[in-house]
Design goal:
Blueprint lengths: L7 E5 L1 E2 L8 E2 L33 E4 L34 E18 L20 E6 L34 E6 L6 E18 L6 H4 L14 H5 L18 E5 L8 E4 L20 E4 L2 E4 L24
Antiparallel strand pairs: 1-10, 2-3, 4-5, 5-8, 5-9, 6-7, 6-8, 11-12
C-alpha cells in the first residue's frame, strides 16, 4: 500500500512515527513548544493562496490583516530560531500585535516569548537585553467573528485622537491570560489554567518605560489627558509616528501544554488508479487510545472518533470532485 508520509496535501498535528503503517494525533509532551509542531504557515489573516483552508492551515498575522514582508509578518517569530527576529521600527504601539491560529485546538497552559540570543539595536544595546516593556496575551479555543474584527481608528471622527483611545485599541480575544504594564525580563512565561487553545493574540502595550519616546509624537502616555495628542503630534507632521524604534524585540513565541489535540487533519494526495474504477465498499479501521503513565493503551470506550471523507474525480485536482 501507499505510505502515509509524503502522500499528503494537508497534515495538522499528525504523528507518523509512533506506530508503523498508521497515523495518529501528535501527543504533546510537557516542555515541547507546540508552535514548532505546526508547519506550512500562512502570514495573513485572509491568505490569498489557493491551498489555504481555515481550520486546516496555521496562520500568524500582524495587526489587522498581516503583510507579505517576512521582516515583520511573523515568519521569524515561529521559526524556532533565537537569532532571527523582527527588526524594531518606529510605528504606533497598537500596530504591534500578532494573532496566532494553530488551526486546531491544542491542550495548553503556558505562553511565552523571549528576546534574541545575539545582535544589537542601532543604539548599541544588546538585543538580549531589549525586553518588551508592556504586553497583553489573550487566547480562545473556537473560531469566531472576533477574529475578523479590525483594531483601528476608522470610527474615530477626529484625526487628533490617539490610537490608544478607547475607540480603537487592540481587541483582545475571549480570555485575557496575561497583562504586564512594566517589564524588564527578557524571558517571559504566562501561565494559565490548562485548557484547549487554538488562537493566541500577543499585543504590545503602552508602558511608562515608553514615555520619553512616545511624548515626541503625540501618543498618549498613562496618566496624561488624551486631549494633548494633537499638540505633540505637530512635531511629527500629524502622523503619530514614533521618533525612535519601539523598545522590545521578540525572537520567538512559545506555547506549552501536555496531551492530545482536540482534533487533527490529514488529507492525501490524489491517488491515480490508472483507469476509471468502480468501488463496492471501502474499509477503514481506527483504534481509540488513551495515554496512561506515558504509554498509549487501547481504550475502546474512549470519547474519540474518526471522520473519513472520500472524493472521486477524473482529474488530478482535489478541488474538482463528485
Amino acid at each position: 500500500g501507499l505510505e502515509w508520509v509524503g502522500n499528503d496535501t494537508t497534515r495538522v498535528m499528525i504523528d507518523f512515527a509512533t506506530s508503523a503503517g498508521s497515523i495518529q494525533p501528535q501527543y504533546i509532551e510537557a516542555g515541547q513548544n507546540i508552535i514548532q509542531l505546526a508547519d506550512d504557515w500562512f502570514f495573513r489573516r485572509a491568505p490569498r493562496e489557493l491551498n489555504f483552508a481555515r481550520g486546516e492551515s496555521p496562520r500568524i498575522w500582524k495587526w489587522n490583516n498581516g503583510t507579505g514582508a517576512n521582516t515583520e509578518n511573523g515568519t521569524f517569530l515561529v521559526d524556532g530560531d533565537s537569532t532571527t527576529y523582527n527588526v524594531p521600527k518606529a510605528e504606533e504601539i497598537e500596530q504591534q500585535f500578532f494573532t496566532i491560529d494553530l488551526a486546531v485546538p491544542v491542550p495548553a497552559q503556558q505562553f511565552g516569548f523571549f528576546t534574541p540570543s545575539q545582535g544589537f539595536r542601532s543604539n548599541g544595546k544588546k538585543l538580549r537585553e531589549d525586553a518588551v516593556p508592556a504586553f497583553q496575551v489573550s487566547i480562545q479555543e473556537q473560531d469566531s467573528p472576533l477574529l475578523d474584527q479590525k483594531a483601528d481608528c476608522a470610527t474615530v471622527a477626529s484625526s487628533s485622537s490617539s490610537i490608544l483611545s478607547d475607540d480603537c485599541g487592540v481587541l483582545p480575544l475571549e480570555k485575557i491570560v496575561g497583562q504586564v504594564t512594566e517589564n524588564f525580563e527578557p524571558d517571559i512565561r504566562v501561565d494559565f489554567p490548562p485548557q484547549y487553545v487554538r488562537f493566541i493574540r500577543y499585543a504590545r502595550k503602552l508602558s511608562i518605560i515608553d514615555a520619553e519616546d512616545l511624548n515626541r509624537c503625540g501618543q498618549v502616555v498613562a496618566g496624561e489627558s488624551k486631549n494633548n495628542a494633537q499638540a505633540t503630534r505637530e512635531g511629527c507632521a500629524g502622523q503619530g509616528n514614533l521618533a525612535t524604534a519601539l523598545k522590545g524585540t521578540v525572537a520567538d513565541f512559545e506555547l506549552f501544554g501536555e496531551g492530545a489535540p482536540k482534533n487533527v487533519v490529514y488529507k492525501t494526495k490524489i491517488i491515480d488508479l490508472g483507469t476509471e474504477q468502480n468501488f463496492g465498499r471501502l474499509f477503514f479501521a481506527a483504534t481509540p487510545m488513551r495515554v496512561i503513565d506515558g504509554t498509549a493503551v487501547e481504550t475502546p470506550k474512549a470519547d474519540a472518533w474518526v471522520e473519513v471523507e472520500v472524493r472521486t474525480g477524473r482529474d488530478d485536482d482535489p478541488n474538482l470532485y463528485h
